[in-house]
Specification:
Glycg_phsphrylas, 3 domains, ten-stranded mixed β-sheet, binds N-(methoxycarbonyl)-beta-D-glucopyranosylamine
Length: 808
């Protein structure tokens, strides 16, 4: 999609005039942003149309990625990059006296996800389009995204994220593609013709699902795929039933909010209804499209792959069965064989509380026909297993319905041909520890697909200065093929290159330091070590371990005022689920410790703590390029993969890591000498569990350093945390420190000392940093989605993709 400066400027002015009857000088940043966005959309719409026309003409097999979360962040800049418009637009706007950055600033950060899972889905969407693969997203158009976080007196306060307030230039409402979704009512099976049972419904509630499509533009390849997000409305025929505003509101609530909790939601019924709503709407629209191909429904698996991203869309399985059975008149056996070939599932966590279960009563009431189908899937599974060699215990452990609950992961596994984890260790644990019975039943279904990140957003766009150094040093091929970042290894002894990379890092640190000063009033020096932990606040991620180390450093300085550690800025970004009190307690403690340390003259600016509010994709784009140290310190076995570890490495940060999730693969890629690992291993963790031999209190009693740190929480050293400090103390000592923080404390401190030592030897540090960048190409989501495409979805690019980039 090429455009010249002259064309752009002319068209831009015309459009601004047409939209707002204004000239450039009178327009606000928002008006300019909307003008640019709508102009871009007009420009890629024909490619978008072409892309799906080509898929249709070739009867191309497509994947539909069902995810209850997508976390794209801002789209303006990445769309410009992928359209190959970025430079021309930047320069053209500048000629007109407009700074592109100001337009980027007014775009709302689209936050329809909680964290890693949603962001991964968005990286995949970018990569699928950029690799020319036929794939689409399917999700929910939440009216409110993940809450906005504010700190008041050090406490997290949640505010609504009304992101649609000023409209959304990227989406297209497709009224003609709306479908109806049914809830509640009574259902019974009637013999409509001899031997054929059909469901008959009474008193159902019908809702309208209206799709809003967003184009996913491939990187300079002229392809545009679709993410389809569904919004609820009241169908015209049903209007009479909902006369009061309250009644209407209750329905419209269905797609109003993203549940900001990965584990225990309130409003469970609404959440379950959300799950069915986007699943049913998505599958209906897939089947409707498939029918235009004029192919027998018996062959739908040759044209359609459906991916279940974590268990939230697991109802895909019974919903697809419902359509094949009730609407397409297939037999159970036929329908089941097809469903298995179509469905695949990714598990993203082994944390027990995040394993979804729904009460039988609730599913039965909300989705009576779907419940019948789940029951039948389960009945046949149990029958089948009992005929085979499996003992009763295996069957008991794997069935879908037990103790009045429906186990969604079991449904997803039984109904899919592929089950994958998101890093090598995690996939191994699924087989050996979390789901061993399923592994014994379906050994061939289990596989690994290590996560990846979109290097376009996480390097090309967010770190322009490093990108320029790379272009100058190793050429530009890395922009298409990130594995070429390896070429950088040829320059590890080149002082000039090392210096240039360092200067680019310093520039990014300066940019972040300015932001920190503007937003929190804290002054930090770009010459300090920027030590970064950015991720959701969760006990297993152990932000507490980080805080305890900071307190130790503080106590060391107080005790020994002459000590001269290298100055450090500890940077945090993290939201806690609103109902997760322990996580909120940790936020409060970090904030109060920051108050104490940042204002203590004895510290002489050797330590600063900065907890930036409202961590989101845009903030990550600012922090990551400025990081020196990447904190990946979860308890081994608990972090399925992590993806910020990959983003930070790609930007030259050195990882300080436990042997957890993808950290292990990062270590294998960069080698032991370019990463700092510490902490107990998975085997040690499981040994402790098995022998129940962990005693946190003994660390408290026997290690004076630990004792002094822990006491700071309760003895008034850190002010204003009377209750919170006690809660932390109790979690560690009374409740035996669930995530082995005290066990790993000493080795963490040692690892931190090693980091400091390496940093002080700048030449050494710069080499470590370079090697991290050079090896990060292995962690791109382009590679990850290609593996999904080949090994799970069995999809391919258009036959002529690459010559004509797949288009007419
Ligand atoms: C995991 O905790 C992983 C992402 C993406 C998260 C994290 O380690 O990188 O998924 N899981 O795979 C999650 O959000 C609900 O589960």
């Amino acid at each position: 999609m090429k455009i010249t400066k002259e064309q752009f400027q002319k068209e831009f002015k015309n459009r601004l005039n047409e939209k707002y009857a204004m000239g450039v000088e009178d327009a606000s940043a928002n008006e300019l942003y909307n003008t640019l966005g709508s102009m871009m959309r007009a420009a890629y719409s024909s490619k978008w149309h072409h892309t799906w026309k080509n898929y249709l003409a070739n009867q191309q097999k497509q994947v539909y990625y069902f995810s209850i979360e997508f976390l794209p962040g801002k789209l303006l800049e990445s769309n410009l990059l992928n359209m190959d418009w970025l430079e021309v637009v930047e320069e053209s706007l500048e000629d007109m006296g407009i700074d592109l950055k100001e337009l980027i600033n007014v775009e709302p950060d689209m936050g329809l996800g909680n964290g890693g899972l949603g962001r991964l889905a968005s990286c995949f969407m970018d990569s699928i389009a950029s690799c020319g693969l036929p794939g689409n997203g399917n999700g929910i158009r939440y009216q409110y995204g993940l809450f906005k976080q504010k700190f008041i007196d050090g406490y997290q306060v949640e505010l609504p994220d009304d992101w649609l307030n000023n409209g959304n230039v990227w989406e297209v409402r497709k009224d003609s593609k709306a479908v109806n979704v049914h809830f509640f009512g009574d259902v019974h099976l009637e013999e409509v013709e001899y031997g054929k049972l059909k469901p008959v419904y009474k008193n159902q509630q019908m809702l309208r699902a209206v799709p809003y499509d967003t184009g996913m533009i491939g990187y300079k390849n002229e392809m545009v795929n679709t993410v389809r997000l569904w919004s609820v409305e009241i169908p015209a025929s049903e209007e009479v039933h909902y006369r009061s505003i309250e009644e209407r509101r209750a329905l419209e609530d269905l797609t109003a909010v993203l549940y900001p909790d990965d584990s225990n939601e309130k409003g469970r019924l609404t959440r379950l209804a959300q799950e069915y709503f986007f699943v049913s709407a998505g599958i209906q629209s897939i089947v409707r499209y498939f029918k235009t191909l004029n192919v027998s429904i018996h062959n739908i698996h040759e044209y359609v792959a459906i991916h279940i991203n974590d268990t939230h869309p697991a109802l895909c399985i019974p919903e697809f069965m419902r359509i094949l059975l009730d609407e397409e008149d297939l037999t159970w056996e036929e329908a089941w064989a097809i469903t298995l070939k179509v469905m695949s599932y990714t598990n993203h966590t082994i944390m027990a509380e995040a394993m979804e279960k729904w009460s039988v009563d609730m599913i039965k009431r909300l989705l009576p026909r779907i419940y019948q189908i789940i029951e039948e899937i389960d009945r046949r599974f149990v029958e089948d297993m009992s005929l085979k060699v499996y003992d009763g215990k295996v069957v008991e452990n794997t069935k879908i319905i037990k103790h009045g609950e429906v186990h969604m992961a079991h449904l997803a596994i039984i109904g899919s041909h592929s089950i994958n984890g998101v890093a090598k260790l995690h996939s191994e644990l699924l087989k050996t520890t979390v789901l061993p019975d399923f592994y014994s039943i379906y050994p061939n279904r289990f596989n690994n697909k290590t996560n990846g990140i979109a290097q376009r957003r996480w390097l090309q766009l967010s770190n322009r200065s490093l990108s320029e150094v790379l272009d100058k040093t190793i050429g530009t091929t890395w922009r298409h093929d990130p594995l070429d970042l390896r070429l950088l290894l040829n320059y590890q002894d080149d002082e000039k290159v090392l210096e240039e990379i360092y200067q680019s890092k310093r520039k990014n640190k300066k940019r972040l330091a300015d932001f920190i000063e503007d937003h929190s009033g804290i002054v930090v020096s770009p010459d300090a070590i920027f030590d970064v932990q950015i991720k959701r606040l969760h006990a297993y991620k152990r932000q507490l371990l980080n805080l305890m180390h900071i307190i130790k450093c503080y106590q060391d300085i107080k005790e020994n005022p002459e000590s001269k550690p290298h100055p450090r800025v500890f940077i945090f970004g993290a939201k806690a689920a609103p109902s997760y009190t322990y996580a909120k307690t940790i936020i409060k403690c970090i904030n109060e410790t920051a108050q104490l340390i940042n204002n203590d003259p004895d510290v002489k600016d050797l330590i600063k703590i900065v907890f930036l509010e409202n961590y989101n994709v845009s903030l990550a784009e600012l922090i990551i390029p400025a990081a020196d140290v990447s904190e990946q310190i979860s308890l081994a076995t608990k972090e399925a993969s992590g993806t910020s570890n990959m983003k930070l490495m790609l930007n030259g940060a050195v990882t300080l890591a436990t042997l957890d999730g993808a950290n292990i693969e990062i270590r294998d890629a960069v080698g032991d000498e370019n990463i700092c690992t510490f902490g107990i291993t998975k085997d040690e963790v499981y040994d402790y569990y098995q022998n129940q031999s962990y005693s946190a209190v003994s660390y408290y009693e026997n290690d004076p350093v630990i004792r002094r740190v822990i006491e700071a929480f309760i003895d008034g050293t850190i002010p204003n945390i009377y209750h919170e400090g006690t809660e932390i103390f109790d979690s560690l000592i009374r409740y035996n420190d669930e995530f082995f923080v005290l066990r790993d404390f000493k080795s963490y401190v040692e690892a931190q000392e090693k980091i400091e030592e390496c940093y002080k030897d700048q030449n050494h540090w710069r080499k470590m940093s370079l090697r991290n960048i050079a090896h990060a190409g292995a962690f791109t989501s382009d590679e990850t989605v290609k593996n999904y495409a080949d090994e799970i979805w069995h999809i391919d690019t258009l036959p002529n993709y690459g010559d004509e980039k797949g288009l007419e």
